[in-house]
Amino acid sequence: MNSELPDSVTSRIGVSQTRRYQVTARDIRRFAQAIGATDPVHSDEAYARTTRYGTIVAPPLFCQSLTYDEVPPEQLPADGSPVELAVPIPAQRAVGGGSEYTIERLVRAGEAITVTSTLKDVYTRQGKSGLLYLVVVETRFAAEDGQPVATEVATYIKRV
Hints:
By secondary structure, the chain is mainly beta. It has helices at residues 7-10, 25-35, 45-49, and strands at 16-22, 93-103, 112-127, 130-142, 148-159. The chain contains 3 helices and 5 strands, in the order αβααββββ. A hairpin with a 5-residue loop joins β4 and β5. The radius of gyration is 18 Å and the shape is elongated.
């Protein structure tokens, strides 16, 4: 346990939030276009039907677009981080510190994906500019049958 952290922070470790998304072919096409993925399996339904997938499938990191809910800017924490990272830390800024993805399979158009984000850890480190708070979040993406699609473990750095 990190003695620098108040109970209001440490008590949230292990807490999960779950959301569900119905993925459309349009969602996949827009994501593919945004990242420059030109394989027709991401955009052309007729072509995709001839592949082993049988339908449009998303590029591998598509699940990242499902990680956080869309909320009005005025509902975001003061540091600008997503509401899912609203851990009561005295921070003014937040940046991504890195993430690791495990991709089990590609997401298909028409699937409902359950997204479960769990606060795995919060700890501190001394940085050049002062105390840094590292927030570790594990996000699991699962199909309707509960089978895993992908997992991300991400670290966010918050500082005063």
